[in-house]
Amino acid sequence: MADDLYSILGVAKGAVAGDITKAYRKLAKKLHPDLNPGDKAAEEKFKQISAAYSILNDAEKRGRYDRGEIDATGQERPQQQYYRDFAGGPEGTRYHSGAGFEDIGEFSDLFGDLFGRGRARGGQRGTGGARFAMRGQDAQYRLGIDFLEAVNGAKKRITLPDGNTLDVTIPAGAVDGLVMRLKGKGMTGVGGAEPGDALVEIAVAPHPVFTREGDDIVVEVPISFDEAVLGGKVEVPTTTGRVAVTVPPGANTGQTLRLKGKGVKTRSGAGDQLVKLSVVLPYRVDDDLKALAEAWRAKHSYDPRRKLKEQA
Fold first, then answer.
1. DSSP 8-state secondary structure symbol assigned to residue 42
2. Residue 274 lies in a domain
3. Final residue belonging to a domain, choices 202, 236, 258
4. Is 181 left (phi over 0), alpha (psi -120 to 50) or beta?
5. Which residues contact 57 (CB under 8 A, 6 or more apart)?
6. Which residues pair with 159 in a beta bridge?
7. Of 78, 156, 189, 273, most Cβ neighbours within 10 A?
8. Residue 95 in domain
9. Structural domains in the chain (count)
10. 263 is in which domain, residue-wise?
């Protein structure tokens, strides 16, 4: 991924949140894999803009990115940690760590208090027979995934600051903000102690078509004037492919059709897909449609705002 997330979305560094969202949605509608089947380049660019948006759309994470605390993948930038002559150096040698512990004091005194004032080196026994060991720190990472990967599950690979890789299995139904704990995949322990864990926070990018409500998937589907009046079969996208749905005669904007089991699948079951209909008139109303409407209105005039007037 390019280093500059702002360039990926085509916005200035000082762009407001609304401009960032608008830029993402414009690019998502152009690059989404559903609209570019088989186009690997478009798919890769879509992943890049989704990952960039997941960081820049979050005020806290955007601030951390701007300050250089996380990189363009959302991973923590490596911080310097070191032990410096803590056992055998001159008096006054102090310990410093980038993990938030500052100026603990003289290590010779510290270890003397803990281990019978014996002079202990890392991994060696002091005069009191004790051995210094410390569990490795937990490592925190942030992994951006797209909406369908969260719904259907996926396998992803994280590149660590030291160049090594870490494979992560995203469970189906993962939600934004989910933190996965990978046992023993954190920092190496000291003195033979166990390593820490890797904590991977999942960031789910929005989808240009689908939204999620609990375990249900919601999609708005436009239908034509004649489909609304007469009913018929229309093709509807789902998170696993397209299906044919029957629109009943007399369908109206806001009416919702339910597709059982087509939502998010979890261990406890599966949600549904909610298809919200939206009646859309032709882009150009021709003479035939005008004549039809006028003839119908002359015989069947009705007030669609009657309930609104009664309740107001």
1. H
2. yes
3. 202
4. beta
5. 17, 20, 21, 24
6. 165
7. 273
8. no
9. 2
10. 210-307
Task: Quote the tokens at residue 201.
Answer: 């926070």
290 and 228 housed in the same domain: yes
The shares of helix, strand and coil residues in the chain, as percent rounded to the nearest 5, are 30, 30, 45
Alpha-carbon gap, residue 20 to 158, rounded angstroms: 25
Closest CA to 141 of 204, 91, 190, 78: 78
Six-digit token pair at 3?
A: 């280093």
Contact present, 219 and 209 (Cβ < 8 Å): yes
Global pTM value: 0.56
Clarify whether residues 241 and 177 are in a common domain.
no
Q: Which of 185, 202, 219 is the last residue of a domain?
A: 202
Which one-letter DSSP state was computed for residue 76? Answer: B
Note down pLDDT in tens along the chain; length 312 residues.
445 899 999 999 888 888 888 888 888 888 877 677 788 888 888 888 888 888 888 888 888 888 888 888 777 776 544 333 333 443 333 333 333 333 333 333 333 343 444 444 444 454 455 567 788 888 888 899 999 999 999 999 888 766 788 889 999 999 998 999 989 888 888 888 888 888 899 999 999 999 999 999 999 999 999 999 999 999 999 999 999 999 999 999 999 999 999 999 887 788 999 999 999 999 899 999 999 989 988 888 788 888 888 887
Please tell me the total number of residues recorded for the chain in this structure.
312
